[in-house]
Amino acid sequence: MTSFSKKMLAGTAVAAVALVGSIGTLVAQEKPVIATVVKISGIPWFDRMNTGVVAYQEANPDVVASQSGPATADSAQQLQIVNDLVAKGVNALAVVPMDPAVLEGTFQRAMERGIVVVTHEADNQTNTHADVEAFDNADYGAALNERLAECMNKEGKWTTFVGSLGSRTHMQWVGAGEENAKKYAGMELVDPNNESFDDANGTYEKAKEILRKHPDLKGFQTSAGNDVLGVGRAIDEAGLSGKVCLVGTGLPNPSADLLESGAITAIGFWDPQKAGMAMNAVAKLLLEKKEITDGMDLGVEGYNKVSVKQGPGKGLLILGNGMVLADKATYKEHMF
Amino acid sequence: MRNTGGQLAMLAVINGLLLVAGALISGGSFLSIFNLQSMASQVPEIGLLAIGVMLAMCAGNGGIDLSGIALANLSGVLSAVIVSSFLSANDSGTAFSVAFIAGAILTGLAGGVINGLLISRLNITPILCTLGTQMAFMGLAVVVSGGKAVMVGSPALLSSIGNDMLFQIPISFLLFVVIAGVVAALLKFTPYGLWLMLMGTNPKAALYAGFPKNGVLVATYAISGMLSGLVGVIIAARNVNVKYDYGSTYLLIAILIAVMAGVKPEGGYGRVICVVLSAIALQLMSSLLNFGGLSNFVRDFAWGLLLLTFLAVGRYDIAGFLSPGRRSQNPSVPVPQTPK
Fold first, then answer.
1. Non-local CB neighbours of B166 within 8 Å, separated by 6+ positions
2. Nearest-CA distance from B248 to chain A in Å?
């Protein structure tokens, strides 16, 4: 071996020791550990969820709660984090699965080892003790549509956007919206289920096309987070703000301008902060071997009276009422 | 052999250091048998893909295989869809498993042969060819599965590949070690191995020497494809489901592992044992960071640092890479030593 590679070895050794020093503080604790794993770290939605996990930790010093997630949107990377956490021996996992199907095998192994598994945004997960959803998807879709109908004076042409036709929740939302609109004879659905792929630009182009095709269109109901931005811009540029109604899923911060200009009538969402707290609350209850019952209060806003159903597997499906509909007047209360 | 031995020693030392570091920060639980098993069972997927990349790189002339993980997913998806159309995972577990494994490996083989034929017969640059086939494989997997996860289930044989231990070692890891051993033997003891390395070193000389160039290329990509098929089997065995977009980050990590193992991107040199150790080192490091509760962004940083370190070593020892150590079969070549 050359003297150079010996130097390299020495250098690596020093680097390794430095690395150990920097993370040496994190030694195994006695308190039960609840590990929250999100789809991707570093995006606003899950940063907001992290504030919930931090708040939960402050309110519950008898557990150790922390959040982690992959740096890239890849279900295999998330799987690896969950695997390592299981091996590390955490007491409970609170996971927002990138892809529920990919995690089934690992969750099964985790549960066999006595780890409590709680999930969110995965009402089709079989291997979980409890899946926490912010609301019933059908109720949410109906509520969005009701708000749209109110704005449209319950008559006129309207259309729907979904992230993709394969997106389960989006299809549930617009499906419930269509059901709701049947109550009003004057409402006519045209060209439904446009795919937006959560791309604001593509949605903008598509919305312009639809506005040209149906000049008398009165309303849009959208699903993916960026749809309101694309459709809102199309409405704004066509000078139709206030004349064409737009209700869809969106976040307050990015939608602020368009809400102010009137291009967006109202946005619907759930607060990931509260969802993170609710997941941890459920995990703690399960760790304490307490039963989760219908109508229970999880101590988190929007989850004060949860409805509990049997999930697709052996686990429970816990539905909160964490739905938020915000318009020009109210969006400032939820700035994230 | 001096410098290539250095690379091996360095990888071994790094693995040792990472284990010690893990033991220190976790108070010993990093070395618990369960964690060692958990890490060992995570290595095979990426390790096998890295061996495939290594083979393609060794072929020289810009050889690389970007289609690895896409082909692995296609193998799993296609085989699951076809096999479950005539067999049920619950009723005939063993038959299902065997058919699934055969289907996945055959799909991988077919994909690899397509890559090899395109590259050798049509003379398409490997990076462009495999980029194209990567998209084609992924697209086909989407079409076949309709974009959804395909349930494979856990019939006995598959489930034991994914979950069971033999002498306390995960079966998937043993499988990985055996396959790596077979590929290493293939490179060391068969004419194919010699042709591959010499062709990578100097394609023109290989051509004039009358090497079966096309045959070697097709065989190389076919082996890489079969390894992908096996990865598909392991993914299915561990995750119960297969999906077209699983492991989209694996592509670059596999290349990272190969380069870290000292495989020369310009061809002609690569050792399987180094790739295995390098895959284990990356796994240890990422598990270590997860144990420490550090952000995953730190992990990318640490990997990058590790890669740059190895590249620096490789560059400095460039004279060593030209030494006869590559093949003991031709020790008579005189080696000019450049002064340092």
1. B174
2. 6
